[in-house]
Amino acid sequence: MNNENQINDNPIESNDSKPTPTPTPSKTITDQMIGLTNQNDFSNNIYFIITHSVYLPLTKTLFRLKKQYETNHMLSHFNEYSSQKYHQMSSDFEKHTKMLKEMKKDLDYIFKKTRNLQILLNEKFQIPGVTDQYNEEEDEDDDGDN
Question: Which Gene Ontology BP annotations are present (predicted)?
């Protein structure tokens, strides 16, 4: 009887133990996949995926945007500078154009006066050939003014 108590006290040899259930196919596949990768490999894979699929393209995009921002800033500065210089030069050009028109009017007036003086002198002193030569030049000048 002593032997019988020892046998019943041992849980491995007890008759009351339930049989282990057979694993389902999904449980088997899940257990095998977990066994294939340990936690460290999984962390490395996630890091690799995040680094190469998210971080690097994002970094490249930010670098391009920064470069584009700098280029836009430089171009806008250049445009402002060009605009200032254009307004300055256009006003100077307008002043010079007005001055040239006034000079042309003044020179036309001076040439007209010198022609009249030359005609008066030619009539008064009668130098032969000078009057004929001047009349030919005057006809050519009148045609060119149109």
Answer: lysosome localization
